[in-house]
């Protein structure tokens, strides 16, 4: 008997969706999955628990703009000219991986903070500048309105309703198209509502004070206000996860949760210490990445772009050469601990952060980290690391350390690379107090050219081992590897005619005046 046969039509494998959630200013220990007692992050914990929790992810820089620049280009920020610097311009030639995903059929969009702060094209006269945010197009601007279903937990929280904007994006997606969505929260960036922690039921005794800050009620309260905003970021992430689950999209979505740099406290953000560049990272994609793992490999923000391009089968053609390397092998390995012995180092750095010194000079740093040690090269140790100790306001030189006639600290008058905060003011106002002065010096005093820290035994970066004979071999090796990588990546600080070119880029943000050092 004749049997007809039906030709089976070949179907292409479904391409993964991507949800990238990035908070603004959150250090690595500050999730409940990490054991933090004063912060509750159930959404992050779910991604980390069901997926992969990375213990050693490092941002591209301790400041948002250069760090995000590194993430989307796969390059160190010093390779991206002004497009790797805070509040400068984004040039067209620095193509983000998101553009290539879109070209490859991905439906792309974002909500909240994108790749910022940068100046994008304002008109046709800006012919060399990129027009749209390098983090993607903002598809909607659904916001909370004060008094109308406003559930925000603190007055400093952005009015952006992140989840509703994500839902709007998804509802306007063409059925079957894979998507890439950038959830860029403004939290926990300052400023905070002081005392917001009280209405959230938090307790001062639960706060965990890092060793570079004094342990008192002011610092603890400031940390709890910071916690309130991390939890807001996590709340909207949780709603996005739930929505994807309800729509049957969760298990085909690569979910990446991280932060752009460390906490906005003295000696953290805008510094290449652990609490400035070491950030949380959890990734979940159950169909391809074996879960319930804790991975200790060193991951750099520069590694994100090549990894996502490889996972989506997207060509890198059109992007400038990347310094980052794909870590797909780590994601798919199924192993915990160190899974790729060949990945020995990561690199980061900074230039200008805010406008904080005479002539808008920066504080150039380069950093290398291996599995135990961190080496920081302060390239201009004669400059103040947190900014000048006094500013000029309306032609008048302000008092030292920004202390007014009543003994109160005015944040805009001094050390402006550090965000205004109760913690900063406490250090400045009590700088003569013998119990506070050591912490004041840690945050604001000038530093040596080289700093070496044993991160496993000194995560707060308090004991500088540079020039200690017992660690000479370690320091020599790390210096050598760092210089070779800076030369390979053509860092203008080492290679080229103008090592100070970063200090010449136009800053498109408010400027301050300082006396010449």
What this model shows, in words?
This protein has 517 residues and is of the alpha/beta class. 23% of the residues lie in helices and 14% in strands. The chain has twelve helices and 14 strands. The protein has helices at 42-50, 64-73, 97-103, 162-171, 196-199, 217-246, 274-277, 304-311, 328-332, 422-429, 437-444, 472-488; strands spanning 17-23, 52-58, 107-112, 179-184, 253-259, 278-284, 293-295, 299-300, 346-350, 365-369, 373-378, 392-393, 396-397, 450-454. The strands form three sheets. Strands 1, 2, 3, 4, 5, 6, 7 and 8 form an eight-stranded mixed beta sheet that branches. The chain has a four-stranded antiparallel beta sheet with strand order 9-10-11-14, covered by helices on one side. The model is unreliable at 1-10 (pLDDT under 50).
Low-pLDDT ranges = 1-10
Order of helices and strands: EHEHHEHEHHEHEEEHHEEEEEHHEH
Number of helices: 12
The helical percent reads: 10-25%
Largest sheet entry: 8 strands, mixed
Mean pLDDT: 96
Proportion of strand residues: 5-15%
Beta-strand segment tally: 14
Distance between the termini: 97 Å
What would you report as the Rg, rounded to the nearest angstrom? 23 Å
- Shape, per Cα inertia axes: globular
Counting helices, strands and paired strands, the structural category is alpha/beta
């Amino acid at each position: 008997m004749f049997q007809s046969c039906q030709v089976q039509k070949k179907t292409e494998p479904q391409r993964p969706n991507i949800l990238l959630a990035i908070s603004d200013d959150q250090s690595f220990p500050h999730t409940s999955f990490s054991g933090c007692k004063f912060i509750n992050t159930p959404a992050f914990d779910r991604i980390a628990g069901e997926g992969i929790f990375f213990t050693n992810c490092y941002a591209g820089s301790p400041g948002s703009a250069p760090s995000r620049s590194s993430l989307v280009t796969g390059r160190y920020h010093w390779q991206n000219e002004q497009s790797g610097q805070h509040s400068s311009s984004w040039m067209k030639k620095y193509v983000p991986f998101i553009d290539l995903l879109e070209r490859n059929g991905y439906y792309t969009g974002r909500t909240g903070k994108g790749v910022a702060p940068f100046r994008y094209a304002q008109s046709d006269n800006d012919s060399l500048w990129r027009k749209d945010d390098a983090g993607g197009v903002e598809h909607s601007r659904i916001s909370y309105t004060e008094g109308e279903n406003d559930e925000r937990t603190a007055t400093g929280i952005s009015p952006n309703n992140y989840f509703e904007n994500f839902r709007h994006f998804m509802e306007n997606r063409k059925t079957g198209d894979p998507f890439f969505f950038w959830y860029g929260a403004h939290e926990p960036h300052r400023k905070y509502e002081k005392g917001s922690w009280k209405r959230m039921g938090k307790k001062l005794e639960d706060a965990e004070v890092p060793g570079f800050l004094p342990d008192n009620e002011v610092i603890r309260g400031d940390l709890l206000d910071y916690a309130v905003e991390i939890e807001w970021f996590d709340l909207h992430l949780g709603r996005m996860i739930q929505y994807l689950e309800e729509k049957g999209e969760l298990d085909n979505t690569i979910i990446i949760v991280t932060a752009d740099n460390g906490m906005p406290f003295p000696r953290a953000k805008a510094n290449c210490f652990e609490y400035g560049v070491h950030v949380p990272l959890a990734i979940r994609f159950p169909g391809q990445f074996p879960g319930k793992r804790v991975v200790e490999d060193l991951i750099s923000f520069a590694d994100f772009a090549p990894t996502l391009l490889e996972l989506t089968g997207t060509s890198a053609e059109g992007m400038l050469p990347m310094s980052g390397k794909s870590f797909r092998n780590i994601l798919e390995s199924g192993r915990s601990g160190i899974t790729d012995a060949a990945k020995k180092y990561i690199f980061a750095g900074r230039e200008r952060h805010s406008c904080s010194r005479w002539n808008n000079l920066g504080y150039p740093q380069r950093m290398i980290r291996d599995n135990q040690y961190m080496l920081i090269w302060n390239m201009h140790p004669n400059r103040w690391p947190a900014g000048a100790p006094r500013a000029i306001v309306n032609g008048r030189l302000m008092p030292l350390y920004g202390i007014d006639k009543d003994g109160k600290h005015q944040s805009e008058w001094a050390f402006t690379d550090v965000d205004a905060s109760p913690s900063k003011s406490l250090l400045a106002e009590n700088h003569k107090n013998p119990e506070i002065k050591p912490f004041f010096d840690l945050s604001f005093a000038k530093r040596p050219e080289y700093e070496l820290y044993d991160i496993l035994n000194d995560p707060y970066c308090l004991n500088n081992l540079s020039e200690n004979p017992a660690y000479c071999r370690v320091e020599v090796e790390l210096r050598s590897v760092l210089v070779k990588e800076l030369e390979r990546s053509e860092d203008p600080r080492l290679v080229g005619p103008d090592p100070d070119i970063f200090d010449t880029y136009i800053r498109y943000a408010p400027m301050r005046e300082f006396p010449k050092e």
